Structure formats: structure tokens, C-alpha cells
Amino acid sequence: MKKVCLIILVTFLGIWLFFPAKADKDTVLMEEPLVYEQKLPQNDTIAEKEIGEEAVVLWKEEKEEEEIKGKTGSLLSEEIKGELLRSQQDNYVFSSLPITKQNLYVEILYALQHRVEEMELSTKDPEEIDFIFQCVLTDHPEIFYVDGYSFVKYTYGEEIRRVTFTGNFLYDEEEIVNRQRKIEESAEIILAKIPKEASDYEKVKKVYEEIINGTQYFSQAEDNQNICSVFLGKKSVCQGYAKAVQYLLNQLNVPTTLVVGRVKNNEGHAWNLVCIDNQYYHVDATWGDASYLVDQEEEAQKEGVGGINYDYLCITTEEIERTHVIDSLVPLPPCTSKEANYYVMEGAYFTAFDEDKLIALIENYQQQGRENITVKCDSLLIYQEMMEKLIEEQRIFSYLNIKENRIIYADSPEQLSITFWLE
């Protein structure tokens, strides 16, 4: 995390003094659980749909089987299943599953997309349902209208003859259609800002910026576990940020998936994995919201610290694991490339302390009228040298060539970056 401080330049008897302001926020508040921990509204465990006193239907006579089957959703036809299987090949989680689980995946997907009541599943093992349900929602941020499910076991004696699935839908059909339309309209405003010839990196960067600039982090936001909170309410938590990023990048044909895990204090968190030029990167728009990472009550925040923190735009596994713990449904590829890292692309990545490069970078940013400048270091040693020369020796004042006797800055020992606000 970035620690916000204040450098005050004092000229008294030829002595320069450095006074760090007290401004440090190292925790992330996330009171709402992630969707995958919230399978049914009433509790955190899967509960079978109650029929009478038990969650099963018992056949007393073999001849009743066909009659009862007619009251439940039928298995998907091979034609529909085949079409669905082909359409899901580009989804990361789906493509990571064995074919037997892919069949169950498309059955649950169909039931959710078409709001089927008691869709018959090919599995007779209810324990498989929870995992695949989570897989479907991980791949499909557009399914915003479901927060859980129930299932029914039809048994004959001790034998399970049939299992049916029903999604727990948050809204009625009219409300779902209405929200879908509004989401598409809101998303189109963002998508229209991205040129058709934009590279995949430019698409990811623009989506990152638009979600951060257009969303306020608020732990009590309505619908904060789905994309409605971002596109309709403009307030959300990490799950909403990440699913909105995924939704937009899906529209732009940039491979992406949702990643879940933990951050400091073992708090649940969600972010994204993206693929750019056949290389994978982690992207965390929530932690990219600078106003979320600093204490709202500190003086430094009141004096203008905010905007976008690019420390979490296209970073490696090693970098994300300094602050995040990955707990993904399926194995994730190692992210080792830095080619599409924001600071590398901006020429602000330092493999050594290079005074000429730093001065040129500052001048370029000032000419562009930017509010702040961030430099990222390749190693802890370079970061420490940068802090020593810029902060302790206060060279930053001469580099910025400003008349003010103070500079607000934020540093991140985890991500080896330092940000200076240009007043």
C-alpha cells in the first residue's frame, strides 16, 4: 500500500529538514463477503430445497418415475449442449475443466441464462454442483441476477435417480430485462471512448481508468456483489469493480477472468487476470483507486491526494503476491512478463537510479499537465536509493523546479513505487 507523506522544505541557517506527515493506511475494508461465499441468502452453506420434511422426493412405485420427471426440467438436448460447449471455449475457467464437468457447467449456465425452474442435471452427485455453479458465475459477470441456488434430489430407496437445479434469482423477469438494458447503455458509453484500433494494453488501461474514475468505493453499496453496483449505482466494492472490468473486457475481446483471494487481515478480495499479447497479468482496479488506499481523514488526503494508482495495472504474480493471496477455483498461469506493465509502457520503470531519465520524465509529465508523477523501481535496493536521494536528500525539489516549500508524496514499499503530486 502507498503511505502518504508530506515533505516540508525549511531553509533556516542553510539547513533542510524533512518532516513526514502522519498518514498511513495499511488495511482494506471489505465488509461484504464475496459472491462465492454467499451461495444462498440465508446462510453460507448449500441447503437443499425443502420438500416436506426432507430435501428429497421419494418414489414409492417405479411407475411414478416418468410422471414425476414430467414435472421437472428436462436434460439439455445434445444439439443445445454442443452449441453451448463450443461457445464457452474462450472462457478461462470453463476451458480449465475436464469435459465431464464442462457438461454440467453448460447445464447450469443454460438454467441461469434462461431462468429455468428445476433444470435436470446430468450429475447425480450434488456435491459437484457448488463448484461448477461458482465456475459459471466466475466466467459470466453478465449474470448479475443470481446470488445462489437450490437443488432437489429424486430418490428411489437409497438410490439418487435425478437431481434438478434452480437458481436463486434476485429480480423478476421484467426487472432483469430492464437492468440488462441499462447496463448495456452504461457500458456502451465507456466502450465508445476506446478506438477500434486500440491495442489490448490500451483497452485494459482505458477500462481500468474508466471503472476507477466512475466508481466510488462504498462497502454498503447496493448490489455490490454484481455489476449493477458499478454501471447503475456507481458505488461498489472489489467484487463489483472486478466483475465490471471483466464485463467490459469481454465486450472488447480481451481474455480476462475473475480472481478471488485474500488481502491483509485475511479479508476477502477480488481482482482480474488479463491476457495481452499471449502474456498474463494481474489487474486490480479496486486497489488502483487511490482514494480507497489512503485514509480519508488524513490531512494529506484533504490536500488533494487521489486519482488513479497504477501500481496494480498489469503486474506479475510475484508483485501481486506481495499484498494478495490467490485462492482461485482453478489453477492460474504464472504471470512473469513486465512488457505490458504500466510503468514500463510509460517509461517510468527504473532498473537503476538514472538522474537524466528522471528529470526528462518529470519535464514530460509537467508539459502534459499531469497532477502527479510515479516512478517504479525494479528492486528494493533501487527503491531505497531513490527514496534516499529524492526524499532524504530532498533532490525532488530541484527536479520539480517548484516554488512551494512542500511536496506531498506517497510511497509503496510493497510495489516499490513513489508518487509525487505536482502542485
3D structure, described in words:
The protein contains 16 helices and 16 strands. It has helices at 65-69, 78-87, 92-95, 99-113, 127-139, 173-191, 200-214, 228-231, 238-251, 290-293, 299-302, 317-320, 342-346, 355-367, 380-392, 396-400; strands at 3-8, 56-58, 119-120, 146-156, 159-169, 216-217, 235-236, 256-263, 267-276, 279-283, 313-315, 325-326, 349-350, 372-377, 406-412, 417-421. The strands form 4 sheets. It has a 5-stranded mixed beta sheet with strand order 1-15-16-14-13. The chain has a 5-stranded antiparallel beta sheet with strand order 11-10-9-8-12. A hairpin with a 2-residue loop joins strand 9 (267-276) and strand 10. Helix 4 packs across helix 5 and helix 7 (200-214) packs antiparallel against helix 9 (238-251). It is elongated.
